[in-house]
Amino acid sequence: MKPNIIVFFSDDHAAWALPSYGNREIGAPHISDLAATGAVMNNAFTPCPVCSPARASFWTGLYPSQHGVHDHLAEDDPEVGATAWLQGIPTLADYLRAAGYSAAMCGKWHCGAGETPKSGFDYWYSSWRKTPKYSTMTHKYSDQGQVVERSGYDTQIITDAAIDFLRGRDEAKPFFLFIGYATTHNPWINRDQGLVARYRNASFDDIPDDSPYAFGEPGTHPVAPDDPEQALAQYYASVTMIDDGVGRVLDELGDERDKTLIVYTSDHGLNMGHHGIWGKGNGSEPLNMLEESIRVPLILNYAGQIKGGQRAGEQVNHCDLFMTLLDFADARPQAPDHFPGKSFRRMLAGEDDPSWVDRTIVEYGVVRAIRDARYKLVQRHDGYPNLLHDLGRDPRETVNLYRDPQCQDIVRRLTDALESFFAAYEVPERSGLRGDDLPVHNRNEAWRSNSVLGERLL
Fold it and tell me: By C-alpha distance, which of 34, 32, 75, 30 is closest to 52?
């Protein structure tokens, strides 16, 4: 029997900001229970450390240089809003619907024109364009394509919509429910004051007392807060608000929980003062590939099918998660050779997978990185020096070994692997390295040269 599937997909929720990944002060009992009775992927990564490309990779199973979204999409921009960013590329919802699922999207989409329901979905309740500000003020949402206004915290409104779907769904079909929470995204203000008060006296000792990032300057999006501890209290409260939403959905499942594959993850990581940076991959200039930016939480729970209490050390990413969800749903993608990800279902059952290549590849426009169990190579095609970090000896990424004579074999090995990967999968007209027509980095606009995505990739 095919499982129901629920994916909780948060925004800017770093792996370090969960008890399951070692945080000693954040309260998240429902997510912690999923971890304790399911599988925690200790080394889970995003394909891109910024929102829109990362989300597009989750939905399509493709890297940015395949699907063509390379930076944050400013959906209030008329040209961005008018662009069909993933047109012609089947999404996870398309595949699952073809496999007999009823599919629902609740919350943040941010892959272009989020107010318009997309193919593959039977139910659509999206946050309106830009991420809502976090207060009880009135916000706009797209309810099946119709503009509605709701008052209250965004997390509660999205949870309400998810529960409405669960109560009104076609029970003859398995369901896929995506819940896109954005509460952990900046600005870190106006969260539930009762929860914020809980963290005002926190030590925040889980955040290292770092020296400033050695290979870039702190960015201005977001601006470093005047009161870091207040911002952290708001961020910690955001995690607990999300956890409350997770708990409400799990309670609504009732007896269906044992028939449901539940996933908790995030689009990318976040620095909250780590390395002197506030933000993700675009939290510095030039862009960074710091561990805090690229690591994501990834917890999977499915009674009887996923071995409980395990912590898997293999490196996985959202393209692997895409293939894993299709595997559980017995859904088959078209042109499978186009997909760089691989199902890790065997690992979740507690089995070894000797064919697994334990490495991670990440890209953000003109910056590309490859990470194995010890070393991380960062190629910066923007005039800035390339980097090589020994994560075993230098976990805070403070020393660049790229020109070290004793490390040249490592540089060549990782460079060859990185270039071979993109030679195999990159779609030239959608590459992040297309040429001078691509900006090095633009925080507030789309990558204009990849605006037309009409031809079918798969």
Answer: 75
